[in-house]
Design brief:
The protein is of the alpha+beta class and about 250 residues long. Helix content is about 50%, strand content about 10%.
């Protein structure tokens, strides 16, 4: 399993081969066995294989080819709907209509997603996380008919790879690992941590394609701009309120 983790690649091109039911069942069971808060399993997994439904989801993921090609789409949702209904049937008053539980259930959903991702890769499949889920959550709710108390958190495209992309660079361990307490970074530390990433041929190509001075500007001026960050933050907050996670 360690080899699978260390050699993970995001796959965005898939063969048309269908995923056997037994393999799908293994992937889903791996998700269900994921660690979660209080064994409440405050998440749901929406399985999409139908081509018509995939076409409905496609524009909500910015028409990415991976969504069109992958035979399987898994949408992971923060879900307090099911647990709250159970509580009410047992004369136990639920109190999960607040931001804390959206946050908690979102963590549970992401852990389940990663279990599914690892299980899929162990079966020879490729996966890719769709960050677009948060940008179009309200519309995904409509397409997947998610009731109040349920919000999509992340999406996986899953299928047999039709590409073999390079292994993406990661920052050195000391960039993300802190022992005992957080060790803040000096300018010299930052220069050292990002030196290898900034010097790669892929980065140089990315800078050229985006017509920026450096890699940092690719993120701040092209990928995740302030205007978009604010706009998507506002829309997601409205979804959180509408779905019942903002009883302040």
């Amino acid at each position: 399993m360690t080899d699978i983790i260390l050699n993970h690649r995001s796959i965005r091109k898939y063969k048309s081969d269908k995923i056997p039911e037994k393999v799908l069942d293994t992937i889903l069971k791996a998700g269900i066995r994921a660690s979660n808060t209080g064994n409440m399993q405050a998440y749901s997994i929406i399985v999409t294989q139908d081509e018509v439904k995939k076409q409905e989801l496609l524009p909500l993921h910015f028409n990415q080819e991976a969504v069109k090609q992958a035979p399987l789409i898994l949408t992971f949702c923060a879900d307090l709907n099911r647990f709250s209904k159970w509580c009410e049937l047992r004369n136990a008053k639920p109190a999960y209509d607040n931001f804390l539980w959206f946050y908690t259930a979102s963590i549970d959903a992401v852990i389940a997603a990663q279990n599914c991702a690892l299980a899929a890769e162990a079966e020879g499949l490729g996966i890719c996380y769709m960050g677009t889920t948060n940008y179009t959550a309200e519309k995904i709710i409509e397409v997947l008919k998610l009731p109040k108390g349920v919000i999509p958190v992340t999406t996986l495209t899953v299928g047999y790879p039709d590409e073999s992309p390079y292994l993406t660079d990661r920052l050195p361990d000391k960039a993300v690992v802190h022992y005992e307490t957080y060790n803040d970074f000096s300018d010299e530390d930052i220069e050292e941590i990002y030196e290898h990433l900034e010097a790669s041929d892929f980065t140089k190509k990315l800078i050229e394609e985006n017509e920026t001075e450096n890699l940092a500007q690719v993120f701040t001026e092209k990928r995740y701009t302030k205007d978009n960050n604010i706009a998507f933050s506002k829309s997601l907050l409205e979804v959180i309120k509408k779905q019942g996670f903002w009883n302040q």
